[in-house]
Amino acid sequence: MTITTLRRALLLGTIATLPCIAGHAMAATEASAAEDQGIAEGSNILVTATKVNEIAPVTASLQTTQPQAIISRSFIEDSLPATADFNQIALISPSVSNFGGTNGAGLSESKAQIRGFQDAEYNITYDGVPFGDTNDPSHHSNTFFPSNTIETLVVDRGPGNASNLGIATFGGSMNLFSRATREDASAELKGSYGTWNTWLTRAVLQSGAIKQLGGTEIMLSGQHVESDGARSYSPFRSNNIFGKIMIPISSDVKLTLLGTYNENRFNQPDKDGATLSQVALYGKNFSLNNDPNSQTYYGYNHTNKTTDFEIVKLEANIAPGSSFENRAYTYSYDNETLSGNDVTLYATATPAQIAAANVVTLTPGGTAVSGVPGYTKTNKYRVWGDIAKARIQLTDFATVTAGLWIERANTYRQQRDVNLLTQAPNYIEKKITLANYPAGTVQPPANIKFDQDSHTDHAELFTELELRPLPGLTVTPGFKHVDLERQINATYNQTTRFAQNISKDYQADLPFLTANYAVTEQLSAYAQFAKGFLAPPLSVLYVVYPKYSTATPQKSTNYQAGFVYHGSHLSLDADLYYIDFRNKVAVDTTAPASEGTVYINLGRAVYKGVEGQLTYAFDNGLAVFANASRNYAKTHNPGVAHTQIANAPMWTAAGGVLFKQGPVKFSLIDKYTGPQYAAEGEPAAYRIAGYNSAILSARYEIGPVRIGVEVNDLFNSTKITNINQGKTAPYDQYFYQPGRSVMGDVTITF
Prior knowledge:
By secondary structure, the chain is mainly beta. 8% of the residues lie in helices and 50% in strands. Strand 18 (398-419) and strand 19 form a beta hairpin. The longest helix is centred in the N-terminal third of the chain and has 22 residues, at 3-24. The chain is globular and about 80 Å long.
């Protein structure tokens, strides 16, 4: 089935279903938490309203079919800095680690790992809509959705059911859910100030149910953040506006409109991190300086990012036990960057060597003169999509869910060399070897690295059958077909630097089988078999002769089982997992030179481990919690030693205490990320020791006023969290924890 055919099917299906919605809607029932999430989003949320679950920082649903962590708004609000990004929110979960955030919580981007799977190897969704960059499905943690836009975060450690959407179900999903509208009107004003001259202002307005508009509820939020940042000459500034309208068209039909706009401005090199020599000279917080003759001058290294995200969601009950849902959405990302060419120059260079590197060529083929080399970068895209799902109850023991997801993305990317002193073109790119290129290729301009348009057409067709053969037992087989087509229309393609028009279509058929058995009302057990999928990145088309590359989608086979228990005072869940990853995309080192760079599928890895989390609540408002994971993530290629995957911690652990009683709220939470390697093959020089990330938070309410304080990185740890390899070891860039920070805040609620 082609993508064009799928588009037509979705359009016809939507048109055909709307009369059914209008003519056959039945009496609506109050939505449960699971229904609030949508139709078969892959993370049914059924959390028993017990004392322990009211205070637990993380728990799992009794209906889950895979390992899961649910993090509530109360934990986000009461225990984390207001500037936290979604990766810091998710960090409390078992098997989740992250690095980055070196400028302070939410003041620079971070990257999360789930069981050792890296960003771009798992999905992130917002209200059920998968989002990510269009060259590969990586993410920007503080660019789209700051914490004021998130009500709940659910980490699913697995591909889910067939209806779990995204082009990287490979490693699981991190699911964000938007702030909820409320029936009661309210207003909340928040102000925070703390370390690094960081300040935040936030307003949240709830209209409540407006009777004159049939019970319509409106929620608006605005947030502004400014900080000097933890790192040298690295100020950060952000603005966010969020709005959501819930319109009950009838007792059976609901329309939700959502939109958010975000703007970030900050000073940071495009390739961030500090070399060991820079750290020795200037300290672990070194990033930029105030020397206009240096490539690390803050005035030459700055980025402006703007994003928007909009969803129109229609939900309808069309018969008892049956429903229809359609989500139309669009989002955009625009990154405009100016950066020095090489901010690692101070690694081992003498002043004379630095001067020799700070040269530019101002005319094509001209003589190099003194200057400061750098480049401009643009990465901007707009995505449109639609997700339609129908859930039909066939019998008392069988329900079918079927649907279609289509998406179109248009992207523009460019990079040009400039003299940072004047912004004039810098003609320093090497000539390409025309003999290795197709006939008729001409030399590209020496100041252009690339200038590229690309497009992605993506469709997923899925169905699953939920069977309830015995009381308490739910078995759900499913199937999904994925079709993703990448196209490049480049004036100067990245890496190859000549005009290319290339397209490549990737397809995958994915089976699923999950089961959940409610042993009692408090205890359930689950098991899962599922295939995961990850499309090759756009970079596999950055080759002179794409016809020789045979790379197909990377796939994972997941086997996992576990249980969830919700008692009155104890919440507990644990699981075992085994994941077989094959078809790793790699460069074919045996390809003849005449074929240029060739991408093939080569290699295998195995991910396996055990995970668990628990919270125990006492009667006096005090609770203790802990979770842990032992994660094996190693290569498994014949004849080669099995080594831990890079940036995959061998284990994680978290623990803490929480107290909520009357006007007092208190929490002390510590997450330990175990040892890992920053490079493949377990090289001793790139072994990163384990480190702690502890947060202390306290709140006291006086009528409508809440006074709070958070101490992030309580023990002032400044350990290494990641290392980016350079051309040689002296040019490696190191990332450190930013150290202790304190934020005080005042919140007034009306």
